[in-house]
Design a protein that fits this description.
By secondary structure, this protein is an all-alpha fold. Helix content is 56%, strand content 0%. It contains 13 helices and no strands. The two termini are 45 Å apart.
């Protein structure tokens, strides 16, 4: 261990102001005070659910980084598991927890009438929006109704639209996302949003909103028609998902991946502990049962996300992370990894602050 102390303590003290902003957001105060509307809660919860779904893939990627000892187990290892065994136990528990959490999301949403595919206004939601499944990270998805029929993206860029062709360029884009496992369209769907075809015969499509027909990629194009808005991960949720995929990639160490896992969980715990403090103030004022969301946060979500059980799980991850660092050999290598973990920590805190909806 270096003179900087345990890695977890060092990270928590590294960016105090950013951490405070990320875990004391006005959204959390409104959630704890019972003034958060059912609509706003639904919009945030729908994104948190997508985040949780990507968490499963992230944990799976971390599991592939752990190698159990090949030697025959001894009495000592049965009594005192190796660090690799402990890491696997924690990661498997994380998978079980998140699967339980997703069921919890769904059952609570049904009980309180929450919409898990709600679209916030800044993402095109509101009156006239269509809420359906899709993937914001899917290269074939744009949230518009254009179904241009041409042979290739290059033809679309040059304006050489072949209206007699039966090949939809978006299908090729969608095939890419399906092979990467990113698209969340319902089973049986062939493309990410329903094609309707061009209505004109000119070189410039009349609804240039699909990926190969965006106005920025055509020299001349008519103004886009506003099509239906599809539910998908918003920009910050996509950034979180991208970070998980990056932290779980082969070029990143298991220690860094565990650091990202711990960072997300400790921020989440601190955030909802802050929200819970407002609930206590509300109860003291005799207004505990008055909630704009019908009671979902006060009765279900906040007790779950601020519980002693969740705190114990977060501490287990932190203990494993500190133990991994403690077993490293060489001061220079240790300091390099601590610096990398600090960069991951800063990224998590930055995203966490922006994951909460604006309350203007």
């Amino acid at each position: 261990m270096t003179t900087q102390g345990p890695l977890t303590s060092w990270l928590l003290s590294a960016t105090p102001q950013a951490l405070k902003r990320a875990t004391t957001h006005p959204f959390l105060a409104a959630a704890g005070s019972g003034t958060l509307s059912k609509e706003t809660l639904s919009q945030w919860l729908s994104q948190d659910r997508l985040y949780a779904q990507s968490y499963i893939r992230f944990i799976g990627m971390l599991l592939t980084k752990i190698r159990l000892p090949a030697n025959t187990p001894s009495t000592e290892t049965l009594v005192n598991p190796t660090i690799e065994q402990t890491i696997i136990d924690v990661l498997i528990d994380a998978l079980v927890n998140i699967r339980t959490e997703l069921h919890f999301f769904e059952s609570t949403a049904v009980q309180y009438g929450l919409d898990l595919t709600a679209i916030p206004p800044d993402e095109g939601g509101g009156s006239g929006a269509i809420s359906t499944t899709g993937s914001g990270s899917c290269p074939g998805f744009t949230g518009a109704i254009c179904g241009a029929t041409n042979n290739s993206v290059s033809q679309a860029e040059s304006g050489e639209i072949n209206e007699n062709s039966t090949t939809n360029p978006r299908e090729n884009l969608h095939n890419l996302c399906k092979s990467q496992g990113e698209c969340q369209m319902q089973a049986g769907s062939e493309i990410c949003s329903p094609p309707t075809g061009h209505t004109g015969t000119s070189a410039a499509p009349t609804t240039p909103d699909c990926e190969p027909c965006q106005p920025s990629r055509l020299t001349s194009a008519a103004p886009p028609e506003q099509g239906p808005v599809f539910f998908a991960a918003n920009r910050i949720t996509r950034a979180y998902i991208d970070m998980f995929m990056s932290a779980g990639s082969p070029g990143v160490s298991a220690l860094e991946g565990i650091a990202v896992l711990w960072a997300t969980e400790v921020c989440y715990l601190r955030a909802w502990r802050y929200a819970a403090s407002y609930g206590k103030k509300k109860a003291a004022a005799g207004k505990a049962d008055v909630d704009a969301d019908g009671g979902a946060l006060r009765e279900k979500f906040i007790p779950n996300w601020s519980s002693k059980e969740f705190e114990g799980f977060v501490n287990r991850i932190g203990d494993v992370l500190d133990e991994m660092v403690g077993k490293m050999k060489g001061v220079e290598e240790t300091e390099v990894l601590r610096a990398r973990c600090l960069e991951w920590w800063k990224q998590v805190v930055w995203l966490e602050e922006r994951f909460w909806p604006d309350m203007d």
